[in-house]
C-alpha cells in the first residue's frame, strides 16, 4: 500500500438535517447568493439537506476529500477505525470520505460571494481524545493547541487542506474542563471565508437575513459577522480580512 502523506486534502461537503427541507434549501441558496438548483453548492462545498425525521436539526455530517479513498479507508481500518463503506464515526460524529474528482472549485468571485469554508467547529469535553482521534487516527495535522482564559475555552486547530477543524473545549473559571469525559462530541458550527464581510452582510440583510454588526475576529487581522438565519439550522459565521485589505 502506498504511503499517504496528509491524505485528507480538504472539506468538500456537509450534511444538515431539518424539519423543513424546502425552507432550509432556500436558506442555503440565499446564503450562497445563487438561485436554487438540484445540486446545492456553497463556497465550493456540496450541501446535502435531509429531513430530521424526529431527530435533532443541525449539522449532521462532514465530507472530507482524500486523494485515494480506498487506500485511505484501509489505512483507517489498520488504525482501528470502523467504516461503513466510506462513512466513519469519530467521537460520536459522522464523517464521510470522497475523492477529489468532481470537487467543486470556484472560478472567480465578487465581493458578495462566499469563497469557501474557513473552519468547522467541533465541541468536545475530552481534548485528549480529540487529539488521538482527529490527529493520530484520522491523520489531521495539529497546528495549534491554545488555551484562551478570556473566552474560557481550549482550542485545538487541525489543518484540513485550506480549512481548519477547530475543536473547542469549554472551561470553567478555574480552567477545568466543563462536562464529563466520554460524552460524544458535537458539531458546533461553520465559519465561511468571504472577500468582504461588510459586502456579504449587506447582501444578506437585503434579502431579509439578520446579520450582526461587523467586528474584529479572534484571529488577528480578520473581521467577522454572525449570520442569524434559523432556517440554515447551523450556527454560521462570516470571516474575512478588513475592507481595505490590510491584515495588520
From TrEMBL:
Could you state one GO biological process linked to this protein?
Answer: L-methylmalonyl-CoA metabolic process
Annotated signal peptide: none
The organism's superkingdom is given as Bacteria
Which InterPro entries does the record associate with it? Answer: Glyas_Bleomycin-R_OHBP_Dase, MMCE/EMCE_epimerase, VOC_core
Q: Mind listing the UniProt keywords for this protein, alphabetically? A: Dioxygenase, Lyase, Metal-binding, Oxidoreductase
Q: Which residues form the VOC domain?
A: 116-240
Q: Which GO terms describe its molecular function?
A: dioxygenase activity; lyase activity; metal ion binding; methylmalonyl-CoA epimerase activity
Q: What is this protein called?
A: Catechol 2,3-dioxygenase-like lactoylglutathione lyase family enzyme
Organism encoding this protein? Janibacter alkaliphilus
Amino acid at each position: 500500500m502506498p504511503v499517504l502523506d496528509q491524505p485528507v486534502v480538504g472539506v468538500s461537503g456537509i450534511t444538515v438535517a431539518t424539519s423543513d427541507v424546502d425552507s432550509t434549501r432556500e436558506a442555503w441558496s440565499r446564503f450562497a447568493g445563487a438561485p436554487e438548483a438540484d445540486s446545492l453548492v456553497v463556497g465550493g462545498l456540496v450541501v446535502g439537506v435531509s429531513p430530521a425525521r424526529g431527530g435533532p436539526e443541525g449539522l449532521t455530517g462532514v465530507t472530507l476529500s482524500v486523494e485515494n479513498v480506498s487506500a485511505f479507508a484501509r489505512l483507517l481500518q489498520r488504525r482501528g477505525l470502523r467504516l461503513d463503506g466510506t462513512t466513519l464515526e469519530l467521537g460520536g460524529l459522522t464523517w464521510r470520505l470522497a475523492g477529489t474528482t468532481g470537487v467543486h472549485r470556484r472560478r472567480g468571485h465578487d465581493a458578495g460571494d462566499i469563497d469557501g469554508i474557513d473552519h468547522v467547529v467541533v465541541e468536545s469535553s475530552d481534548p485528549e481524545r480529540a487529539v488521538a482521534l482527529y490527529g493520530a487516527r484520522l491523520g489531521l495535522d495539529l497546528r495549534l493547541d491554545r488555551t484562551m482564559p478570556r473566552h474560557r475555552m481550549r482550542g485545538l486547530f487541525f489543518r484540513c487542506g485550506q480549512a481548519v477543524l477547530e475543536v473547542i473545549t469549554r472551561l470553567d473559571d478555574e480552567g477545568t474542563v466543563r462536562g464529563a469525559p466520554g460524552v460524544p462530541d458535537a458539531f458546533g458550527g461553520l465559519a465561511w471565508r468571504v472577500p468582504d464581510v461588510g459586502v456579504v452582510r449587506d447582501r444578506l440583510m437585503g434579502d431579509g437575513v439578520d446579520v450582526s454588526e461587523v467586528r474584529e475576529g479572534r484571529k488577528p487581522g480578520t473581521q467577522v459577522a454572525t449570520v442569524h438565519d434559523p432556517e440554515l439550522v447551523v450556527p454560521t459565521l462570516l470571516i474575512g480580512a478588513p475592507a481595505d485589505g490590510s491584515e495588520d
